[in-house]
Design brief:
Number of strands: 9
Radius of gyration: 21 Å
CATH superfamily of the largest domain: Dehydroquinate synthase-like - alpha domain
Largest sheet: 6 strands, parallel
Order of helices and strands: HHEHEHHEHEHEEEEEHHHHHHHHHH
Bound molecules: fe (ii) ion
Strand content: 5-15%
CATH class of the largest domain: Mainly Alpha
């Protein structure tokens, strides 16, 4: 397979060196930040502001559920009161499939729009980013995959997240999906950061528990991976650590008492802080694996991250003990003065406990042994070529982490592989938390 060959070569020529160089570039790259409107009623305030900008017609990009629940009303009323016409495209589906994004681009042109408000979760915001960029460049989404592929910046773009997790309202990337090839594709451009974002907790009080849990754990993963990766900066560290504190404190409250506006607002802010951290410092092995699970099984992104996070943290721990110790203190999982190794272990236990407290399973129901080699290959490729991970995973490492989350009772499989898989899983459980360091850890 060509990707195999390229992957082997990439590993051989020392991609970490290339990625370190890329990290220097990302440190210097100016990344714009949206004006943030925060608090109950922020979506109406965003509507008032956008109405003042004099757009010809605004396209509101959303999904059917949000439209049906009436969550758009405060924004729509504010636009109407300000005399700004708008059209609503409510067909965005999970993972922002390319055909749907293409429909949105056509709709933008047909309705003669000149600005976009993204109103929804991560898939909606990502779809809206691509619609705005594609429309401004007269291009189709596939031709924009990669970095800075558009000649022009997007149509003016504003965002109202309705979940607290993706951080897409502040990031330079949009992830869309190619349903034919079961692949997720990334479009990255600093110009697709929205100009303004409203964090309105009132839009989040009705979120179902599994969505609150999965999106909250996605935000935690962004913060943790940004903090542990080697593209981190003083700014991304500050954002990541704040997000970790807020998530450990508020996610269980938001999960158990969805109507708690203060906890919802803190989670919305934490998600945005985590987004600011990872849009600078990037993510890592958890996301590399989760993207493959999402593409193959349509596992919700946050759930896939939440299930993989404990495995990857245990794998990475020997390289980043000191940083995990700091995370433990910020998560209030340990006490100042305790040995680093003890604190690091406390953080791993705290992540396990947080995940359990919000109903995250330890295994991924959809995962099948027969798919693991290809999933691991794709995940290693993504991590090797894109992410400044604290510890590089080999094909074997990644397969072991995936086998550790195999469901206990997978449907009938040929006897040989099943026994073999069980043996491998037993081996994984016995395996020490990690092997010798590759990178001279920056914090360990
Ligand atoms: Fe994520």
């Amino acid at each position: 397979m060509l990707s195999n060959l390229i992957g082997d070569r990439a590993r051989a020529v020392g991609l970490p060196a290339v990625k370190r160089a890329a990290g220097v570039v990302t440190r210097l790259l100016p990344i714009p930040q949206p004006t943030l409107l925060v608090g109950p009623g922020a979506s109406a305030r965003l509507g008032q502001a956008v109405a003042g900008f004099g757009h010809r017609r605004v396209l509101i990009v959303t999904d059917e559920v949000i439209a049906r629940l009436g969550l758009l009303a405060p924004l729509a009323d504010a636009l109407a009161a300000g005399g700004t016409p708008f059209s609503i495209f409510d067909r965005v589906a999970p993972d922002a499939p390319i055909p749907v994004v293409e429909q949105g681009i056509d709709f933008f042109a047909r309705e003669d729009c000149d600005a976009v408000v993204a109103f929804g979760g991560g898939s909606v915001i990502d779809a809206a980013k691509v619609i705005a960029l594609a429309a401004a460049n007269g291009r189709q989404p596939r031709s924009l995959v990669g970095y800075f592929r558009g000649l022009h910046g997007p149509a003016p773009l504003y965002a109202v997240p309705t979940t607290a997790g993706t951080g897409s309202e502040v990031t330079v990337a949009a992830v869309i999906s190619d349903p034919v090839n079961e692949r997720k594709l990334v479009i990255a451009d600093t110009r697709i950061v929205p100009k303004m974002a409203a964090l309105d907790p009132l839009l989040m009080t009705g979120l179902p528990k599994p969505v609150t849990a999965a999106t909250g754990m996605d935000a935690l993963t962004h913060a943790v991976e940004a903090y542990l990766g080697y593209w981190n900066t003083a700014f991304s560290d500050r954002m990541a650590l704040s997000a970790v504190s807020m998530i450990f404190e508020n996610l269980p409250i938001a999960y158990n008492d969805g109507a708690n506006v203060a906890a919802r607002e803190k989670m919305a802010l934490a998600s945005t802080y985590a987004g600011l951290a990872f849009t600078r410092a990037n993510v890592g092995n958890v996301h590399a694996i989760a993207h493959q699970l999402g593409a193959k099984y349509h596992t919700p992104h946050g759930l896939a991250n939440a299930i993989m996070l404990p495995q990857v943290l245990r794998f990475s721990a020997p390289e980043v003990t000191g940083r995990l110790a700091t995370l433990a203190l910020r998560a209030r999982a340990g006490n100042e003065g305790e040995p680093e190794a003890v604190l690091a272990e406390r953080f791993l236990a705290a992540v396990d406990a947080l995940a359990a407290s919000v109903g995250i399973p330890k295994t991924l129901e959809a995962l099948r042994e027969r798919d693991i080699p290809a999933l691991a290959e794709a995940a290693c490729w993504e991590a090797d070529t894109g992410y400044p991970v604290p510890r590089r995973m080999s094909q074997e490492d990644c397969e072991a982490m995936l086998r550790a989350v195999l469901p206990e009772e997978a449907p009938a499989q040929p006897a040989g592989p099943t026994r073999k898989a069980a043996k491998r899983r037993a081996a994984v459980k016995k395996r020490p938390s990690g092997k010798a360091a590759g990178r001279g850890g920056k914090a360990g």
